[in-house]
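Protein Entry — a single chain follows
Next Lines — sequence and tokenised fold
***
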Amino acid sequence: MIQTVSRTFFSSLAASSTLKNLASKYGMRGPRSFARRFIAGETVDEAIAAARAVEATGLLQTLDLLGESVANMAEADTATRAYLTVLDRIVDAGVGRNISLKLTQLGLTIDRATCVDNLRRILDVATRHEFFVRIDMENSPFTQVTLDVFEVMWQQGYRNVGVVLQSCLPRSVEDARRMNELGARVRIVKGAYKEPRSVAYQDKTQVDAAFVEITKLLLTGGTYPAIATHDPAMIAAARSHAAQHGITQDKFEFQMLYGIRRDLQTELRSDGFPMRVYVPFGREWFPYFMRRLGERPANVSFVIRGILSER
């Protein structure tokens, strides 16, 4: 119940342009700023530095240039060009070639065909340089169209692209089966968006149970799934299922968010599991940051302590 209220509260804050402007002005100022626990920085240079630091500890990483729901096609084109620049910079820097992106950042809410073209532009360069591209899942109004766009790319022969499913949505069990049939790589998450009862579980136990069910489906019948969670119980369930069915550690990976549960990240790496850190960056970091606060009330106390330490 507390988590539901927290998520609702921070979702409303994420929509505030006033707070966004204030956060953009002060939130990333200085190396100890309150947002830097969860955001690598605003520039690609900062992101690459963070990626290098992650890789130096033996972890994998994926870079995500934050942004969503652009207002027009010009902004979608700008975002696409920015991603192409990021790909070039990653190649030059020699860090791991793995990125994540959102379709509304590429113009999905304005014109689907143009969004597909923008995604294709990115995938073409990504294919040439052997990148893997993960299409992030956004809130439920975009679930079906995201999967549709993914399948269009898949049917056109792109195999360096994967997708995300959210266990808070009952439909995700069948979506996981469909992705397994295709041979597509899936990241399973619980879901960070505030969703209505008509389409999503509201009870944590249901979300957790679905997460475990989908994890087992992906481990047993999927293609190199990514188990994205900071929940020790979910991690234990995945490890147990893999061990019971002889699924070796090289057949899947765990993923966690930048700045969250570093102890678990280190533990999984030490136990021999591939462990990838989702590294977000960019000027449009505020909505993402608010969702992270809404997911875990404990994150709020961290931010408050950080703000007070700056005074």
